[in-house]
Amino acid sequence: MRTLGLGLLWGVLAALASVPLWLKPPEPGVLAIAQAQRLENGAWQPVALPQARRPASRWEHYRATLPLDEAGARYLFIPTVSQRVVVELAGQQIADTELRTTMIGLASGTTALVPLPAWLLQAGDNVIDIHLQSMSLVPGYLSPLYIGSADELVPYYRSRVFLLEYLRLVVPAGQLLLALVVLVLWLYRPQEALFGWLTLLLVTSMFIYLGMMRNLLPFLAELMPYLYMLGSMASIILVITVLLVAGIAPPRWLKLAAAGVPAGCVLLGLADILPTSGLVMFVNAPLNMAGLLVSLVIIGWAALIKRIGEAWLLLFPLLLALLSAVHDYAVVTARLDGPVLLSVYYRPALMIGIAMILMRRLGISLNRLDDVNAYLTQRLTEQERELARLHQEERREAAWRTLNDERQRLTADLHDGLSGHLASIIALSERENSVQVERAAREALDDLRLVIHSLDIRDREFPAALAGLRERLERQLRRMGVSLHWSMARLPEIAGVTPSHALNVLRIVQEAVTNALKHGRATHIRVQGGQDDEGNACIQVENDGIPFPRQPDRAGNGLNNMRRRIRQLNGSIEIEPLASGTRLTLRLPLQLPESTPG
């Protein structure tokens, strides 16, 4: 797996190394202009295109002749130019790359596709003037010109725009994102010195990209030499980084040099002791190449001699970075043709290597975390065995406290319910009314059975409690000639049921049925369980009696008791009158509270 990842990395790097090969000229069928004239000392001199190694930071003026058999719209394609070009046709300006929305910048060349207005073209020779401005340290360059239709030239133009402009903008954006990721890692693990130096490396190496912001921030053009000087500290930081990868503590003087050398160059430039261009060309640029060379030697030694796996991830990227730096230095010093600086394309290779090192270290940290987790799991198992005895004692004590609480609640329920019925029996007995005495005695007996039956209810045995209530209600309603429809098949399972919980729910349902008979004079009662849209369990008691008033004059003791009991269950009650009858909806959470107040 590790070999596959390394091969994949080197495949990506090889693709990046072939970027210059993607810049192909148009097909031979397109009209190419390879001869032009250049204005020198006030006179036009014939020259051949491309024109390369022209002095930087100045204007160059070229004139080309376009022969046409017939007038008509055409397009002028300039594949590569550095860095600004103004095009005139028949003495009238028709294009200026400075006015483009894309930030061209100072780091490399650009491309241009200029429509030639048909009303300015004529059959025969047409004169095209091209004014070329090269800025910063990059020499002037003008490629051959191509004339054709949009269908012939647009594909080549778009590929150049992608490679020379959009891809250059993607690189700093990706590097900035990577710098933020490494910064976060460093903030969370400040003891990892590698993360801190990687953050500084990613940030300082981005100074050169600020040249791309020249169109947005014009004052950067004057500051670019100083930004190049400050950016050279990245080469020294790179040496410190590879030393850490190789397991070598960087010396103190090297850390001081990372800030001291660039700062000294900036001070020399600001004091006009040495020209800034000379400092960049003969101090900072060689320092960058020297830093890459030293880093390559160290990382090669770490990979080949010390057999450090992370070193292999940086070996090829450093080699590409060194070769591109040498190429760019040769271009800037006019020893090679071409305005395209390769460092901006090959720098992502180094960023990819750094990202893979971070991912590798993250993977190692996760593996160590898994090992520690396994060790802690084993220790936790041992502690659980040790605490099992104490836990059993705690459970017995908790059970005793729960039983004591339930006894107190039972006493209160017997006092509130049964005592009232017994008082009625005593009063009726004094009047010698045997029918009413029997009815009151039966009600007292049913109430007592309800309380006693609830004491046997355990968690997740709530359906059994409801089934017992149904059995008692059916006998009672059958004697009164009232039909009962009972369905609890769709009632979801309710957890955390205690005897107190069960008794509260049974009393609420019982009270709803009693009210339907006593106040609603119902002949049919329907009790159905289910689940509402919010996931709560609900029990509906619906009757065909007199509708419950929407705004009753006052709430009776029965309704108040129901509301008190439902609050203890963290539920709710809703009573709504129907066209014929009343519906009471009891909503309960699927997990009842651990205890209810007495």
UniProtKB/TrEMBL annotation:
GO biological process, one term: phosphorelay signal transduction system
Keywords linked to the UniProt accession: Coiled coil, Kinase, Membrane, Transferase, Transmembrane, Transmembrane helix, Two-component regulatory system
SUPFAM superfamilies according to UniProt: ATPase domain of HSP90 chaperone/DNA topoisomerase II/histidine kinase (SSF55874)
Transmembrane segments: 166-187, 194-213, 225-246, 253-274, 286-305, 312-332, 338-359
Pfam families: HATPase_c
GO MF, one annotated term: kinase activity
Coiled coil region boundaries: 366-393
Boundaries of every Histidine kinase domain copy: 409-592
Domain of life: Bacteria
InterPro entries xrefs: HATPase_C_sf, HATPase_dom, His_kinase_dom, Sensor_HK_TwoCompSys
UniProt-recorded name of the protein: ATPase, histidine kinase-, DNA gyrase B-, and HSP90-like domain protein
Organismal lineage: Bacteria, Pseudomonadati, Pseudomonadota, Gammaproteobacteria, Cellvibrionales
